[in-house]
UniProtKB/TrEMBL annotation:
It comes from Subdoligranulum variabile. It comes from the Bacteria. Transmembrane segments: none annotated. This is ABC transporter ATP-binding protein. Residues 3-229 form the ABC transporter domain. Keywords: ATP-binding, Nucleotide-binding, Transport. Belongs to the ABC transporter superfamily. The keyword Ribosomal protein does not apply. The keyword NADP does not apply.
């Protein structure tokens, strides 16, 4: 199982947002670090097939990013997670499950299981409009996992989570990485230093570091030194 990214590039007029990125990702947790404007979100949106690259390719076990087969293996939580405020948590997951092609029986089973996983069972019947920011973010994580994805892409997923929720989330991500490719973007070093198998650092649209966190004595200092000019 391999996600192959070959010379992926995105250019907007005179600005190159992502610059010839090549990576081969297998099972595990990949932490994508970078300052705001480094190109992380543009990169992830191309991996999800939302943005068309200027050049380069993305394939998963031979499946092109634009194919239905690829999307069936994908779970995505965007930075700006959209929701329907009048839906309750359970109804929202059931709706998202139907869009992902799950049967009614499977949708109910998975939705109930995921609400328990992200600790929202007690508010499953409450309107999303009443949820806190952290609760909405946990619901977003749940919807990304509905189809048992092999590729999980999470853009700033810990936004709005309190310290306890962050710990719970990190434990969940570590577990998911045993059977899936998890790519998690953040500018908060502590979110990934204990769970990422591989750390990727992006600067000006390029990957400037690709290696294990164990290779670095102080990841936060290394990161700050790398981006001190920005």
């Amino acid at each position: 199982m391999e996600l192959c990214i070959d010379r992926l590039t995105k250019q907007y007029e005179n600005k190159i947002a992502v610059d010839r990125v090549s990576l081969q990702l297998t099972n595990g947790v990949y932490g994508l670090l970078g300052a705001n404007g480094a190109g992380k979100t543009t990169f992830m949106r191309m991996l999800c097939g939302i943005l068309k690259p200027t050049s380069g390719t993305v394939t998963f076990d031979g499946m092109d990013v634009s194919s239905e087969e690829y999307r069936a293996e994908l779970g995505y939580l965007p930075q700006d997670f959209g929701y329907y405020p009048d839906f309750n948590g359970m109804d929202f997951l059931l709706y998202m499950a139907s869009l992902k092609g799950l049967t009614k029986t499977e949708a109910k089973r998975k939705s109930k299981k995921l609400l328990e996983l992200v600790s929202l069972s007690d508010v499953a019947k409450k309107k999303i409009a009443t949820y806190s920011g952290g609760m909405k973010q946990r619901l977003g994580i749940a919807q990304a996992l509905l189809n048992d994805p092999k590729i999980i892409i999470l853009d700033e997923p810990t936004a709005g989570l309190d310290p306890k929720e962050r710990v719970r989330f990190r434990n969940l991500i570590k577990e998911l990485g045993t059977e899936s490719i998890v790519l998690l973007s953040t500018h908060i070093v502590s979110d990934i230093e204990h769970i990422a198998d591989t750390v990727l650092m992006m600067k000006a649209g390029q990957i400037v570091f690709n290696g294990s966190a164990d290779e670095i004595d102080d990841l936060e200092k290394f990161y700050l030194d790398e981006f001190e000019e920005e």
